[in-house]
Write a structure and sequence with these properties.
elongated, eight-stranded parallel beta barrel, 11 helices, TIM Barrel, 338 residues, four-stranded antiparallel beta sheet, alpha/beta, homotetramer, Alpha-Beta Plaits
């Protein structure tokens, strides 16, 4: 921790700042610059009341110098974490994990059909929404419990683990019983009550980055889950909100590199939601893998024009198979395999 | 609804687009520009499958021309809505409604003391957090149910209605029984499950704008609550996330004007969270009222340096009383009173 | 200056960092925290090669703790600066300075007519564009030199100082001779070559904030002009670019408070360009003054629907007169006069 | 062009809107929806006074449906444009063009040394700044004309075409004589005066995207140059400004796909300025090529810790050679070669 004093601080103010720091159990070093005096804490600064310190007269500001996340921090866990999606499909290692499926579960024929198709193309897991977060209350809200049942059927047929989004704490218990990977959507990334409850489950959590979440806030949300006891967190970059409106969001691939440096958790990329345009999915998937993503989550629909949700960003099973071929060719160039 | 055809569309593609629109129950007008052909729907376009239409070959894009919110829309409710905070304190009329209190409830002495002070200065309601959304799982999370009890005590002493944030659907029933105004925080603005449940309650909802929510998304979240049956929604502008980091967020006062034109709902402003600096609160409060806000929600703490949360943005009861004096002087200049 | 060492740095790396700092002429204080070791500079850190230091092995990052602007900094010039717009009309003191006029000069009748009208309503200066920065090369680019001549005529008739935008270094000499206040537009805020040349002129410079400029970058652009010898800089907040598209830009009124704390320079607000909608100008002008702006710059056009530029955000002379009445009433509530 | 009428418009207002459109030389189609009436222009809408139309009573808004750029538009030039950097090195075709070199030219030994190294690794051109846009007036501003001379020497030795940034219209003539590719920096993307003058030159222009420029604004700036007669424009994505501060900017790789769909111009990516961190350059370069970029521009410095500018984001010649090896392996996976 570093404390910057205001210009013109008095000796009493300096003493008060030092006392407040010492009360937190540290030894204080004083550096008097020509324009600025700074105080450094020698020892463990965790016990210092930072808010109080920052509001003392004569104190300009208090700068934190260590990351606020611990369990998610690579410093305390240098090796990459591998997370099992279910049935042994790992994400975070050399092999890329591609999760694919429709935005929404719509019928048995649809979800089982798509599941078979993406499995044939090499997908590691099946995605599909049963509970849908929609901006409009008048839009299709998902099939709910029936959607979960159809996902289970698709799993029974293909063996693929199923990934689906949770929207309510009421469903945590049911999701833990029924699904393989619980997805937290971008809009719920700071639904702390939900994160806490997921911290008590044993299922992997796919944690999407919020629309305007900094990398640090995203890792802090992972920390919420991990602090509760569940360390099986998979991060998912899905685009951030910027001034640009040509794409639905702006895919931030440098965030993949950032979180892999800051954290040991695996990270996958969702090009479908990031771009909002099916024709962009292929190239942005290749770019994501080239940037170092551990996997992808891609919207695949048997009949995009008639999809009940997000058809514009869904690719067809044939396009998905073509994409997987390209990924298979590109992966070795970046030390990966598929 | 307007459909823009791609350059080089075929006559068959045009016919298919027209048929898809007609299947939705409208008559279609075709305008052939020198570069672009557009189709307009004559009649009620609600029955058209917009996603399907937009994905037809030859169709470039589909533009919506009506707002997607209905109950929140001023077009269908030209008069300003007034919402009773409890005990007859209205927000949305000529009289400004100022809600004040600490970020967190910390003790009986604290909350009752602050309540008395803000009441004496003219506040219409008491705010105070019992369940706190904190970025870090290791930060103070609020007193929970005990906090609610202390707020009730402060209400018993002062008669002020109490406003507090809900973080979990588990608490909806309890909040409906115990508090006067239920606040939805910025991070939960698109927690649709929570919004739906609040739509079934009878208490006014203070709906904060999300950190990166457009005005339309904010009104759509209000629509979620209203569509459920609860039309007592108060909007709250609290700053949006931008590239600027000097302030915690960027207070968007033009949004006050925008929502008051687009919607009949009352809107209040939270300068404390927007700026994150106590010394900015006074002037930004005056600016908010000058811009046309129906009220304010302000963090007031008896001892900011020792606040358990957000001390840096809290003003003292004395500063609050001074601010109220200034608001009282300025209000008549913009046709208001306090 | 504060240097944060990486975890696991070696004693040699620490010594190298210390030597590099000492080579810059400072004494170094070392604070060993439980997780982090930091180095503080005692003395004047200006001589340290910060880039080199930050790239040394073992060094995590170097944090600057003093502002990089000097002449614009309030620390070295505690009193508010007053700038004379010409003819004794000061900006930065108790009296508000309102600059008004059309987006573009279009004809003698238009500019003289508007000049008389805004003067009658109490404007301190006349604005009008002769050289226009337009996104499209096919849009009206302004009357150029003829526009400057018409502005001079309007000045001759009314005595109002004239404010107009410069777009090219080729025009610096001519502007210095012909106009009273030289405006630097948002898109040229970091046209450093232009800033340097304006630093050698003797005319006041109205420096608009760039669309995505931080407050520090804005002050650094002011510093460019001041470092050249021209300290007569007026800052102008005109909205920043954010994700919100309802308004043309997002007016950041908290920036007014920020720059007035960080700098001694006067600051005016342009609600016309910020909002892009004429119906928002009145209320946002009142809000700007309530927030502490030293003045306003407002687009006024005799016939907005037929304006050659920006008609949608221009108010009429009658509306301007009404706004001035309201400002006259509100100003005393915030310690100002008009 | 589409005109949306306000609810409750009168028949006279409708007639006035139609007349205004017809005065522009088009036939008008009227579509009466249940909630909204829209007008479509049949014929060439270019003659309509859109501003006037949008401000008519009864008119809600006017929506443009065609892109405002013509020469840069792929619709009128379906084939990819190839631009010769000088000496036959093309950008925009199958072969990737990698431009590399230091942020600033610092000495003959430095620039010639780096030029030889990047040529040996396969670079198509040499970059190096002689005139530097620096946020601070007190920072190193480049060697100026001497820097240009040293770049010419490096070209004489290696044969590599030279790419360098122009900051002032005063230098247009000299740049046209001395350099091969003229770079317009992000901060000057809307320095329209400069763009116009570059439109009269015969040298290729590398046009960087502004920090907060939309894709449309970027293409409009290209249009400025092309409208002047110089169609040899190379677009350069270099990161946009967002709320995220971990990286210097946020590299928007989806913009590469967007401009390649909207325009025929070649596009290269600058990962160095986008990320601001040398350790990110390799992976983001691979990602850019995977996304479809036609080339890269990369900062390479012989001794990054002692660079006079941007050392933190510069890679060494050895790292550059390693990156080129990786690009050579990856290129064929996306139909390219190096």
């Amino acid at each position: 921790m570093v404390v910057i004093m205001k210009p013109g601080f008095t000796p009493e103010q300096l003493q008060q700042a030092i006392r407040t720091m010492e009360a937190g159990g540290v030894k204080v070093m004083v550096s008097k610059g020509s324009e600025t005096t700074i105080l450094g804490a020698e020892g463990n600064a965790a016990g210092i009341n930072q808010e109080e310190l920052s509001l003392l007269p004569g104190v300009d500001r208090v700068m934190r110098v260590t990351e606020p996340y611990k369990k998610a921090n690579r410093k305390y866990h240098p090796d990459d974490s591998l997370v099992d999606l279910g049935g042994g499909a790992l994400v975070g290692g050399k092999r890329l994990a591609v999760i694919a499926g429709p935005c929404s579960v719509e019928s048995e024929a649809q979800i089982v059909g798509v599941a078979k198709a993406v499995q044939a193309a090499g997908a590691a897991a099946l995605r599909g929404g049963a509970f849908k977060p929609r901006t409009s209350p008048y839009a299709f809200q998902g099939m709910g419990n029936d959607g979960i049942r159809l996902l289970q059927e698709a799993r029974a047929v293909t063996g693929l683990p199923i990934v689906t989004e949770i929207m309510s704490t009421d469903n945590v218990e049911m999701f833990e019983m029924c699904v393989d990977v619980i997805q937290v959507g971008a809009r719920n990334m700071q639904n702390f009550d939900l994160l806490k409850q997921l911290g008590k489950t044993t299922k992997p959590i796919l944690l999407k980055r919020g629309l305007s979440s900094t990398i640090e806030e995203w890792l802090m949300s992972a920390e919420y889950i991990m602090a509760g006891g569940n360390e099986r967190v998979i991060l998912c970059e899905r685009g951030i909100r910027t001034f640009e409106t040509f794409t639905r969001n702006t895919l931030d691939l440098s965030a993949v590199l950032a979180v892999k440096q800051l954290s040991h958790l695996p990270v996958v990329v969702d090009p479908s939601h990031a771009c909002g345009k099916a024709w962009m999915v292929e190239k942005m998937s290749l770019a994501a893998v080239a940037a170092g993503a551990d996997g992808l989550i891609i919207e695949v629909h048997n009949d995009p024009p008639h999809a009940l949700c997000d058809g514009a960003q869904s690719i067809t099973p044939d396009q998905f198979a073509g994409l997987m071929e390209q990924l298979r060719a590109l992966a070795p160039c970046v030390g990966r395999e598929l």
